[in-house]
Amino acid sequence: MNTPAMRADFVGSFLRPESVKKARLEAAAGKITSAQLKAVEDEAIRDLVNKQMDLGFKVITDGEFRRQAWHLDFMWGFNGVGHQPTKTGLPFHGEQAMVDDTYLIGKLSYKGGHPFLEHFRFVQNLAREGVEAKLTIPAPAQFLAQMVMPFALGNTRKYYTDNEELIQDMAQAYREFIQDAYVAGCRRLQLDDCTWGMLVDPAAVYMWGTDEKGLKEVQEMNLRINNMVLEGKPADMFINTHVCRGNYHSTYANAGAYDRVAEVLFEKENVNAYYLEFDDSRSGGFEPLAHVSGNKMVVLGLITTKSPKLEFKSLVKERIEQAARYIPLERLCLSPQCGFASCEIGNKLTEEEQWAKLRLVQEVAREVWNLKDFDKQL
Fold first, then answer.
1. Parallel, antiparallel, or unpaired for β 238-243 and 332-336?
2. 127-138, pLDDT tens digit by residue?
3. Residue 192: which domain range?
């Protein structure tokens, strides 16, 4: 387990079983208690984790079964953050993402005892020997974007007259959370980050309300806050990042190759590994991987979670070979391109189709990296 990523890996979220969906609706309607909801979630997570380990995965998650959305629930656990049901949703291609509007209601700070810590401990206690739990949270840049993009900036200025003070408060809050996660036993933290996907989109200047020069400044701002949070991290803690272009009900928010952000993101962000979306033409080619600096690893997201259609094994192997022209094969791994259910609604495939995708990841990884059995992941 002395490596940032496994040869066969996955991003984090899984399709919610009907039992969890039903219980969450009943809890929201006041028909069952929070304790009853937790009992249903606990049972579903135990089953999910056992399936992950039975397939041979060495890093496990709770599938984000306790969350409404991959990122917002984390933000709600801090002082100064409020939310309410959305009336408009967020623009995705062909559909609005109906997730809660989330905004500042005061100065931002960490209040301790974040719910995600207990969620992590539960999963950690389910891990068999040789298996490790992973915690996924939104990247600092993602949290910052939620508060400083044009649609949110007017409200944020009620509490912060400029972005610098907010950046300082947010970085401090994250550092305190990471320290608590470390004390809880977390040695594998994943920062999920869609901001880079927004920056490479053809409409990026309109989304950020700026020009090309301004987009460069946003890149530097995102890099700065992410690296500020990583300063002084425990030496034996892997902190990785996942970059994608939005994932909601099999739709996406952005498109664009990594070229525009490669020099900043791949050369300068101080993470241990990148989980990168590469499931279709929206992500561009592998050439930008040449910018991945040092000994950082790349997890190729070649298996789509947005469609039930199962990829051809031979084509997946061919794409891994193509990527290896720009970064050595020993620094590459394989995973689906994103989670299967970044929000409660989930993507448009069945649970069996979900597991078929993950079996394919294991099969390809064993053959490409000559893994003799499930226990030999490296």
1. unpaired
2. 999 999 999 999
3. 18-368
